[in-house]
Amino acid sequence: MSADATPEAKPASRGGSVEKVLTILRMQGPCSQAVLARQTGLSKGTINNVVKKLLSESIVSLQQKNRKESLVILGVGLGYVATAEIHSEKIKATLFDFSSERRFDVSVALGFSTADSSSSPGVLVQALQRLCQEAGVDFKEVSCVSLAIQAPIDRATGSIVNWATSRLPAWKDIRLAEWFADQLGVPVIVDNDANLAALSEWTWGCGRGVEDFFYLFCSEGVGGAIILGGKIYRGGTGVAGEVGHMVLGDSGPVCFCGGRGCLHSLVSERAILAALDGSESPQDSLIGVIEAARHGDAACRRVLFEAGRSLGRAVANTARVIAPSVIAIGGTLSTADELLTDSLKSAPEILNVLSISSATKLHLAVVSDAVTLGCVAAALSHLTRGINAIPGWMRPVSSDEPIVIA
Ligand SMILES: [Zn+2]
User: Fold this and answer.
1) Residue 404 within any structural domain of the chain
2) Residue 244's domain is classified under what CATH number?
3) How many whole angstroms from 246 Cα to the centroid of ligand 1?
């Protein structure tokens, strides 16, 4: 992972040789010193010195490969990393203890639809402090706090962009990373949830090792993230990749952004539930729709089919512009599997793109708990650390193999 992927904060500074070695270890996993020398272009003597330095700082360990060689492995001495997903109605905060390999979670339900104090950012400060208290950890020992916001972040101000603040009104005009770092007294990084979900899939999932990657995150909302040349592409304003607001038709529903016919207004959880209004299969969650469709409910199958077609058009339009090597679909909607992907991959726009760009691979995302683990990936990058794979204690593993859908 490139240090440039770190959101809203400058990475800790290290020498060029050290950073080159760390980048190769993050991207390729355990390597011998000979491989590191070949991949970085550095001399074997320099590699040896870098590895000694990283060993002394407990950033890497060695594992005997054979009688002659050892593999250099990332992932020791990481301490504590705290993360939080901030949704419009709840906070999910997690503490990762890398020393004793334990994970602690706490969820706080909130009414973020109003701008009163019960929904202010201070509630997150309390939730994080409570999390550490319950885990028996002094907050000052946390290496980094990594926050995922369910809204785009303005690059210039570090605040939620104005048009999206209706979902988190009490967070309006707050320079989030600075404010939380002041309150918590530890380094804080902040990014949009789709960027972070993409980061986890790119670091440990089906995007691993590719330079150009596009990720579409479809759950309560619809977000996208673009990684170009090994870096998250943010654009001049910081809101690049907001594919949820790509207009697919001027006769669609009005979106909360003020547009009409946005992808979000067609395939977000609320949109899919609204599409079932008036049918005999009303549902109260996207997971419910998917379950009912699996049991043969025709109306639920229909709305998922139509969602797949809309996603197909949006993915194809994006792929034409950025020509990624890998496209991944993640989030709750992606768990519909073939109920979604049959229509997505047979959308005429997708067939057209894949016939022109046969090298582009389309996958369902494989990293579960993607936003929280993306927060960890961003924190490790900020700390110029990394781990080669997600161990079981950090997440529930659904599958290690990417599911190819086209
Ligand atoms: Zn919109």
Assistant:
1) no
2) 3.30.420.40
3) 7
